[in-house]
Amino acid sequence: MRFESFIRDIPDFPKPGIIFKDITPLLMDAAAFDAALERMTKPYQTGSVDKIVAIESRGFIFGGAMARRLGCGLVLARKPGKLPADAIREEYTLEYGTNALEIHTDSIREDERVVIVDDLLATGGTALASIRLVERLKGNVVGLEFLIELDFLKGRERIRQYPVRSQLHY
Amino acid sequence: MRFESFIRDIPDFPKPGIIFKDITPLLMDAAAFDAALERMTKPYQTGSVDKIVAIESRGFIFGGAMARRLGCGLVLARKPGKLPADAIREEYTLEYGTNALEIHTDSIREDERVVIVDDLLATGGTALASIRLVERLKGNVVGLEFLIELDFLKGRERIRQYPVRSQLHY
C-alpha cells in the first residue's frame, strides 16, 4: 500500500506559503485507512500497551481504533479547558505565542506502558508536551506513532530518546 | 455491560448549573469501550454502510473505530475553517448565537449509505446540520449513533424521520 497517493497537497492552507497535507482521502478509503492502522499498531503486541494517548483532534481518529486493535484503554490529550475533571497542563511554543495540552490526572497509573498517537509530527511541540504529561503521571512512553512526519521541521530530534515511527515522510 | 458506571458526572462544567457527562472513564476501560463500539455497530452489516460521518471532535474517537469494524470509509464533519479542500457548510443555533459544521464536497457520493456518529445527542443541532450536509451531497442517512442521549433536551424530536440510537439515556 502506497499511502502517498491518498494524501492530498493543499497549497496556502491554513495560510500563504504552507502546503497542507490533507489526510481525508486516506480516511475515506477503507483499505488505505485499515492498512495505516495495521502499520501503526504492528510494533506492539496485544497486552504490551496499557494506554493509547491520542492528541486532539486528528489523533482521536487513529487513537480510538488503535486502542481497540491493541485491546487497551484510550486517553485524550486535549486543548485547555476541554477536559472536565482534574487535569495537568503542559505548554508548548508555537511560531507566535504558546498553546497547551491537558490530560486527566487519573488517566494514567504509575508504570503503565503508553503509546502516543497523532496524525502529524511537525516541530514536535505537541509530542513533547504529551510525553511530559505522561511522565508527570509516572507513565512509561514506549512509543510515538504518526501517520505523517514533516522531516524538514526536525521534530524527531526533540524526542529522539523515544521510539518514533511515521508511515509517511515529507 | 452497564455503561452508566463508566460515565462520570462533573457538576458546573463547562458552566454553572450544567452537569457534564464525562466519557473518559469509559474510553480508558478497554472492555467498556469495546462493548460500546460493539453496540454502536451492531445494527449494521459489513458492506451495508459506505461512510461513517464523525462529528468533531469526540465523534472522531468512535467514528474511526466504527469505520474499521464496518469496513467502510470515514468522513469528518468539522468546525468552520478546519477542512482544507472544497467544503459545504451548515449553520446551527446555539443558546446564544450560531455555529457551523463543514464537510468536504468530495467526501460522499450520490446514494452512498451514511451513518452519522457523535458521543452525545443534546439539542440535535449538530446532528441536524450533519444530516443536511450529507443530503446536500445526495448521501442517504441510514442511521445516527450516539453513546449518550440527554432525553430532556428532545434532540431526537428534530431528527425523528431517521433511525436514532443511543446507548445511554439521561
Give an overview in words.
2 copies of one chain form a homodimer. By secondary structure, chain A is an alpha/beta fold. Chain A has one domain (46-169): Rossmann fold (3-Layer(aba) Sandwich). Helices cover 27% and strands 34% of the residues of chain A. Chain A has helices spanning 24-28, 30-41, 58-70, 125-136, 155-158; strands spanning 8-11, 19-22, 51-55, 73-77, 87-93, 98-104, 113-121, 140-149, 164-169. Chain A has a 5-stranded parallel β-sheet, sandwiched between helices. In chain A, strands 1-2 form a two-stranded antiparallel ribbon. Chain A has a two-stranded antiparallel ribbon with strand order 5-6. In chain A, helix 2 crosses helix 3. The longest helix of chain A has 13 residues, at 58-70. Chain A is globular and about 40 Å long. The model of chain A has no long low-confidence stretch (mean pLDDT 96). The A-B interface holds A 8, 10, 13-14, 20, 22, 24, 27-30, 33-34, 37, 51, 54, 56-58, 60-65, 67-68, 71-76, 81, 83-85, 104, 107 and B 8, 10, 13-14, 20, 22, 24, 27-30, 33-34, 37, 51, 54, 56-58, 60-65, 67-68, 71-76, 81, 83-85, 104, 107.
Summarize the structure.
Chain A is an alpha/beta fold. Chain A has helices at residues 24-28, 30-41, 58-70, 125-136, 155-158; strands spanning 8-11, 19-22, 51-55, 73-77, 87-93, 98-104, 113-121, 140-149, 164-169. The radius of gyration of chain A is 15 Å and the shape is globular.
The overall pLDDT of chain A, averaged over residues, is 96
Q: What is the CATH architecture descriptor of chain A?
A: 3-Layer(aba) Sandwich
* Class from helix and strand fractions of chain A: alpha/beta
Total number of helices of chain A:
5
Strand order in the largest sheet of chain A: 4-3-7-8-9
Low-confidence stretches of chain A: none
Radius of gyration of chain A: 15 Å
Order of helices and strands of chain A: EEHHEHEEEEHEHE
Helix content of chain A: 25-40%
